[in-house]
Amino acid sequence: MSIQADTLKSSIIETSNEIKDASVDISKEFKTFVSDIEDLLKETASLSGDDFDKAKVRITDRINLAKSTIGAANKSLVQQARESAELTNRYVHEQPWTVLGAGVAISFLVGLLLGRKN
C-alpha cells in the first residue's frame, strides 16, 4: 500500500473514532440533562411564588445549555461524518482493487457462515 493510502486509511479511522466520541458525549449530555430536569421538577413540586419563578429560570437555563451543547456536538458529528465519507470515497477511488478484494473476501466468509448454518 502506498503512503497516501495509509494516510487516508488512518484519517478514516481517526474520523470514525471522533464520531464515536461525539455520539458518546451527546448521550452523556442527554442523560445528565434528564437527570437535572427530574431533580428540578422534584424541587419545584412544593414551591410557589418567587421560589417557583427562580426554579423556572433554572430549568430554562438548563434546557438552553443542553440545546447548545447537543447542537454543537451535532454540528461536529455531521462535519466528521462528511469528512469520513469524503476520505472513504477518495480511498476507494485510489485503491479500487484493495476495496474490491476486501468486499469479495467478506462476501465469501459470510457465504461460508450462512452455508454452515443450513
Write up what this structure looks like.
This protein has one domain (3-117). 93% of the residues lie in helices and 0% in strands. It contains three helices and no strands. Helix 1 runs antiparallel to helix 2 (49-94). The two termini are 38 Å apart. The mean pLDDT is 79.
Q: Name the average pLDDT.
A: 79
Low-confidence stretches: none
The fraction of residues assigned to DSSP E strands is: under 5%
Compressed to H and E, one letter per element, the order equals HHH
Structural class: mainly alpha
Tally of DSSP β-strands: 0
Topology:
Elements: H1 3-44, H2 49-94, H3 96-117
Helix pairs in contact: 1-2
Brief descriptors of the model:
118 residues; mainly alpha; single chain; 93% helix
Short description, anyone?
The protein has 118 residues and is mainly alpha-helical.
